[in-house]
Amino acid sequence: MLKNLIIVESPSKAKTIEKFLGKDYHVMSSFGHIRDLAEKGIGIDFENDYQPQYIVSSDKKKIVSELKKATKDAEVIWLASDEDREGEAIAWHLFDELKLNKDNTKRIVFHEITKDAIVNAIENPRTIDINLVDAQQARRVLDRIVGFELSPVLWRKVRPSLSAGRVQSVAVRLIVEREREINQFIPESSYRVSAIFNTKDVNGQPVELKAELSQRFSSKDEANAFLEKCRNANFSVDSIVTKPTRKSPAPPFTTSTLQQEAARKLGFSVSQTMMVAQRLYESGKITYMRTDSVNLSELALNTSKAEIISMAGQNYVHTRRFNTKTKGAQEAHEAIRPTYMNAHTVEGTAQEKKLYELIWKRTIASQMADAELEKTSVYIHVSGSQYQFVATGEVIVFDGFLKVYLESTDDESDAESEGLLPALLQGEGLAPIEITAQQRFSQKPPRYSEASLVRKLEELGIGRPSTYAPTISTIQNRNYVEKGDRVADKRDYNVLKLKGDKITDQIKSENTGAEKSKLFPTDIGMVVNDFLLEYFPDIMNYNFTADVEKEFDNIAEGKIKWTSSIDKFYKHFHPIVEDTMKNSERQVGERILGTDPVSGRQLAVKIGRFGPIAQIGTAEEEEKPVFASLRRDQSIESITLEEALELFKLPRNVGDYEGKDMTVAIGRFGPYIRHNGAFYSLPKTDDPMEVTAERAIEIIVAKREEEKNRIISTLGENAEIQVLNGRFGPYFTCDKVNYKIPKGTDPATLTFEKCQELMAAQPEAGTKKKAFGGKGAKAKAKK
DNA sequence: CAGTGAGCGAGCTTCCGCTTGACTT
Question: Is the dihedral of CA A351, A352, A355, A361 positive or negative?
Fold first, then answer.
């Protein structure tokens, strides 16, 4: 008979704990939640005080029966799921589903996985906190109601298969509103004045001193007037101010900060970071990677300290205990840190190594001393002017934590590296080499990256460490948001330069506004957002989650019943859903751009059945409307009348060849030529508006030649099998199924019999879609 | 695999948070 059975959430954790405890303990894992609301239908009994209908999902049946068996054989069962709302609910679901007995079931919690912590937990068991469980039930039921009542409204009013929810809809809102801010942004320019002076360094060698004017000028005239003044002015050192400053290290990583830093420093996507971190966790190299806590265990503090002493010395040590300030944090785990602080690197893939080193540096740095700096500012007086130039220099007096790690920032402001300034004396005269007034423009707000969106969501208390990555996938899978790049725009700017006695006036050009891997809203994303915002402003409110969290806290403290809290919400929410279903219009996001100068009919853009379209004329008119699809890089929100009119110039007849028309158009996969029922892609270098008949024939001939080379041989009496050259090398096809050719086989020598042999050996490769992300995984779970 | 843009109106889609697999190209 088994003496003690401990159940935790994660199998890796189970493995670690089992090592700490003796033979009397067996540790199993529940793999997270073991049951959930029924997937079919809403899964809530509205007639019966919102009674949730819980079901063990098919992929959890096996683990539940294994756990049930184990609990029957155990003397004492210890429920050791995390100490937060979800963890408490997991414990309760286990208790309920496994039909455990109060007499021999104990609830324990620990925040760090050390022998002491676990032994201590076992010595201090408690019972399941049903109020906390109820807070989780309220959370779960609220999310189900919001998601499963709002989504069908979208199916009816916008497009089937769409979705809405407490978290995802607000995430989309952030992106849509940022895009509109960018569209409406009007850059303002000002003139920044900088000067280069001649002076001497400590050894008497001539050096340049760069300084910037404390004042920016809003107009060219003012800037010019100032330079005129400088022409005959004297420059002298007015004062020298030296100030000591300090820099402190950032706290250790949480899920959100790890995702941000891995994106900035390593270029990882949010989901990539989580996958790599998961592998590090499973191989025991780091602590748990889904956490909102910046707390480090005593063990981690001690081993970090020892590591810093041996690496840099006692004076680099500064033990720090950080406090989590994040809204709604539940702190069931430690911060993300290396399991063993003395391992500076690990074995593994390049990605694993890089991410581990990042985590190691961040953790170690968080326990190191402040960096001490000395900032020197030299103020330079300009005779006859109220303004002064300032030269700044910064010197590191003691590097402290900077020895290992410096946090990155998102803003790409031109941070000029400031070093040591030359030794100067107060009152010393300075000779200017040149003084430049350069026109600068205010910056558009940046689009969100995956990681900066996570940071914003965390700041608003929306979503949890385990859902940041999936949420970002969802809003992209629903096609509300697209990840993409934006090429730079050229912009002219003005430079006035005083050199010697002459002021020159130049126009220069710069690239601006380039963005990489940023989140853009789609037309459908904007239409859905505007619709939800109009009819369900409460749900879309940035404070909605924070407000319901307060409600959940009250439930957890036993101040209110969870069902009455849900009742209050539902009685308000449901009638709005009904009303919107009945009384709102279908949403197509139509925008009228003006009139078509040729026909004089109205030109509008809207979302059609297959995506965004432009339309000349209206359905009410006798003459049927004419349609054209928008290009992928265009949006309903920002397209102009001129751009829309361009779209109707395609398809364009470019002439005929072999007695048939050649037409150029743009399809889903880009521009193409259509000729005699066949399609020929247009290379990127060809402009579909410019292609001539000669060029089109060239492309057609080239494609046919390629086609010819594609077929290596045809086999079988009726040519059932074709051996072909494909993008990934040779292969053969039969009945529309493709088969691999084994390495080392010359495809030209394949016979019909040999192919049939190969076909029998290769099971029909299932043409399933990608399994990653929510959709594929779900489809599989259902089977 | 690209062209469409309308209605007989079947049956389907969907949430957020816990946790790991097993899929090929």
Answer: negative
Cα–Cα distance for residue pair A491/A292, rounded to 1 Å: 43
Chain centroid to Cα A224, Å, comes to 45
pLDDT at residue A201, as a whole number: 74
Nearest CA to A470 among A61, A165, A783, A57?
A165
Nearest residue (Cα to C1') for B12?
A161
pLDDT bucket at A776, cuts 50 / 70 / 90: very low
Specify which residue's alpha carbon is closest to the C1' of nucleotide B4.
Answer: A610
**Nearest-angstrom CA–CA distance, A279 and A631:** 41
Asked if residues A565 and A145 have their Cβ atoms less than 8 Å apart, the reply is no
Please name the residue that has the structure tokens 């809102």.
Answer: A173
How far does the CA of A335 sit from the C1' of B15, in Å? Answer: 29
**Which amino acid, residue A266?**
L
What is the DSSP annotation of A261-299? HIIIII---HHHHHHHHHHHHHTTSB--SS-------HH
Predicted confidence band at A671 (pLDDT cuts at 50, 70, 90)? confident
Query: How do residues A217-250 score in pLDDT, each as one tens digit?
Result: 999 999 999 999 999 999 999 999 999 999 999 9
How long is the CA A474 to C1' B15 vector, in angstroms? 11
Which positions in strand B are less than 7 Å from the protein's CB atoms?
1-6, 11-25
Burial of A351 (0-12, 13-18, 19+ CB in 10 A): middle
Task: Measuring from the CA of residue A671 to each C1' atom, give the nucleotide at the shortest distance.
Answer: B2
Is residue A163 predicted with pLDDT exceeding 60? yes
Nearest DNA or RNA nucleotide to A668 (CA to C1'): B2
Asked if residues A359 and A346 have their Cβ atoms less than 8 Å apart, the reply is no
Residue A210 pLDDT exceeds 60: yes
pLDDT tens profile A470-484: 999 999 999 999 999
Nucleotide nearest to A666 (CA to C1'): B2
> In this predicted model, what pLDDT tens digit does every residue of A268-292 receive, in sequence order?
999 999 999 999 999 999 999 999 9
**Which of A9-16's residues contact partners 24+ apart within 8 Å by CB, and which partners?**
A9/A81, A9/A82, A9/A87, A9/A90, A10/A288, A12/A281, A12/A282, A12/A284, A13/A113, A13/A288, A16/A113, A16/A284
pLDDT bucket at A766, cuts 50 / 70 / 90: very low
Q: Are A697 and A657 in contact (CB under 8 A)?
A: yes
Nearest protein residue by Cα to C1' of nucleotide B20: A31
* Closest C-alpha among A508, A486, A485, A484 to residue A495: A508
Q: What is the pLDDT of residue A616?
A: 93
Provide, in whole angstroms, the distance separating residue A642's CA from nucleotide B8's C1'. Answer: 40
**The pLDDT of residue A770:** 32
pLDDT of residue A357: 98
CA of A524 to C1' of B14 (A): 17
Check if the beta carbon of residue A379 is closer than 8 Å to that of residue A195. no
The whole-angstrom separation of Cα A170 and Cα A127 is 37
**A657-CA/B7-C1' distance, Å:** 39
Tokens of A506: 């130049």
How many contiguous H segments (helices) and E segments (strands) does chain A have?
A: 21, 30
Active-site entry in A281, A288, A448, A672: A288
Question: For the segment A363-398, what is each residue's pLDDT rounded down to a tens digit?
Answer: 999 999 999 999 999 999 999 999 999 999 999 999
Assess whether A288 carries a catalytic annotation: yes
Strands (E), A16-145: 25-29, 36-37, 44-45, 51-52, 54-55, 74-79, 105-107
| Per-residue model confidence (pLDDT) at position A418 | 67
Minimum-distance nucleotide, CA of A288 to C1': B19
**What is the distance between the alpha carbons of residues A775 and A742, in angstroms, rounded to a whole number?**
33
As beta bridge partners, residue A74 has A2
